[in-house]
Amino acid sequence: xxxxxxxxxxxxxxxxxxxxxxxxxxxxxxxxLKKLKPDLVSLQEALFVENEQNQVVELGKTLSFPHVAYRVxxxxxxxxxxxxxxxxxxxFPIISTEYLQLTNPLMEVTRPNGEVWLxxxxxxxxxxxxxxxQPMRVLCGHNFPYHHFKRDFMHEEFxxxxxxxxxxxxxxxxxxxxxxxxxYDDLRKAIPNVFSNGFVDVFNEPTIxxxxxxxxxxxSEHCTVNDYKIVKGKADHYLCYVDLELK
Length: 247
Hints:
Layout: E1 2-7, E2 12-13, E3 23-24, H1 26-36, E4 40-49, E5 53-54, H2 55-62, E6 67-75, E7 83-90, E8 94-101, E9 108-110, E10 116-118, E11 123-131, E12 134-142, H3 159-170, E13 176-181, H4 187-190, H5 192-196, E14 200-201, E15 215-219, E16 223-231, E17 239-246
Parallel strand pairs: 1-4, 12-13
Antiparallel strand pairs: 1-17, 2-3, 4-5, 4-7, 6-7, 8-11, 9-10, 11-12, 13-15, 14-15, 16-17
């Protein structure tokens, strides 16, 4: 099966300047996912406006995914008057969903233009799928952008959040796939108990134009990874996918 993860940044792309993602074009994301033909897609930062806009549902419908789950979790910084959501598009039946919210560290920073940023709620949308009669757990998630607040995720003040993430990842006997924007590169250092329990972080390379890794696909020992690719493009996060099978 092919698992993709993509922080679509509200459906915005750049028009030539990779420092400005100011052109709203959801059709670009539709086109790239059509080329990829994934069996499951984990989405972060999809825009949502009640009764007006739901990018998760729109992508699911346009791409003909029969099963869709989403969770709106915070106000959006990407477009005034909108919220952002986590979403999962699946070709496999979804038999349960749950949202697992992380403790908000209530960070604050004043930007150079005088704008004050506050940390918004983050967490993981957990779904259980049925694949050939076998249950599998998928976690679509988004961690806090500590770097935007000039903070270090490894600082002791965030011990509780790192512990929460470890507990979420390890709390299942089912095969587990985590496809998430973790806003951090070295997860083996940040959440070591996950990897000492047999999980594998599939790739270790930049996933955003700035040249750092923020996005991850992490799989439990029940999965065999056959291939992966980071697809560079016009959005502020690259499209990442993994080909795997259950043992």
